[in-house]
Amino acid sequence: MEKLMFHPHGKEFHQNPFSVLGRFREEDPIHRFELKRFGGTYPAWLITRYDDCMAFLKDNRITRDVKNVMSQEQIKMLNVSEDIDFVSDHMLAKDTPDHTRLRSLVHQAFTPRTIENLRGSIEQITEQLLDEMEKENKADIMKSFASPLPFIVISELMGIPKEDRAQFQIWTNAIVDTSESNRELTNQALREFKDYIAKLIHDRRIQPRDDLISKLVHADENGSKLSEKELYSMLFLLVVAGLETTVNLLGSGTLALLQHKEEFEKLKQHPEMIATAVEELLRYTSPVVMMANRWAIEDFTYKGHSIKRGDMIFIGIGSANRDPNFFENPETLNLNRSPNRHISFGFGIHFCLGAPLARLEGHIAFNALLKRFPDIELAAAPNDIQWRKNVFLRGLECLPVSLSK
Ligand code: HEM
């Protein structure tokens, strides 16, 4: 029998990550493979069962800070030039206590209560997008709804002036593009993003407004403030972590509803079940299908596998979320599922900071879409549905629908 080998950049994984990860979950749940990246080869492990993923996410022998396992020389080979090294210096790339300090400086802006204050504004943005869509009988959900909604919400939250948003969108699109072939364009966008943010920071220092940039500029935790570079890193992280993930929840979630008409009808009749519905859409679609950038800081043995210092750890969220030892009928979309302890927002100290915001956007967006277009239908054959080429974030290229009968 041919030995099972994981190819994260392979065609099969791109087309159906759930079945690929599921096969490893069944046959080789702690899988050793070689990751080919930046012209080098790195030893790595793919973890696919729910319990094992949780064990690795809790394990403090795993670091998220590459500086703990690579020399300056090796890090240089990863090709991050000094003027934009803020991209690898944010709290998601740090362990405690650095992580704790950074997270506590931003945490206040993302509590469920603070986020609830955005409800009115998110509802208004949603209705405006639906008004535009209503002018036609057809739409691409990605272009008209799933992409602009999180972008406008995050721009408003941060305090990006309306007149700068078109340019801001160009930068954010380039920044979240992780393909190696577009590396120079991404780096150029990062430099412009940094200069722009520097100007906003300067303005908000002098004249604070009711926006996140002002709050971060003035945030103080036990006398400690964010440095200029930490501010760039934090805002960069919010864009990278908060945009495409939410876009994917709205896009893939809509596709899942359109492909499961009984569940769609249930939610249409009972909008009050939106909270469990969104958790199930998060589980079923797993917008972050796999997590990486974790390394073992020491040699250790796990369930008979010998993990070495410096080995990379990949966490298969998409397979943990469909582990039959943890979820009943995991391949079934059940919008009433409860409890639903999916790990779509990760687990442990790096648990998604923006979860309350993503949930609120999901609650508002799905209910409003179904209410406005009760007869919405998929206008593409299943084989024509294209997924974006991203190993970690699972999202649609486009989602054509007809809006009324
Ligand atoms: C459906 C939407 C979202 C999903 C599925 C998602 C998923 C995740 C996951 C899996 C992690 C953990 C990463 C890891 O441990 O390696 C994470 C962390 C994070 N997310 Fe989200 N996210 C979403 C939306 C957002 C939004 C809207 C924001 C903010 C605007 C945000 C900000 C962050 C930040 C800052 C972190 C790092 C937290 C830390 O290091 O302590 N996310 N997210």
Automatic annotation (TrEMBL):
CDD domains: CYP107-like. InterPro entries: Cyt_P450, Cyt_P450_B, Cyt_P450_CS, Cyt_P450_sf. Keywords: Heme, Iron, Metal-binding, Monooxygenase, Oxidoreductase. Its EC number is 1.14.-.-. GO terms for molecular function: heme binding; iron ion binding; monooxygenase activity; oxidoreductase activity, acting on paired donors, with incorporation or reduction of molecular oxygen. It comes from the Bacteria. Pfam families: p450. Belongs to the cytochrome P450 family. This is Cytochrome P450. It comes from Bacillus spizizenii (strain DSM 15029 / JCM 12233 / NBRC 101239 / NRRL B-23049 / TU-B-10) (Bacillus subtilis subsp. spizizenii).
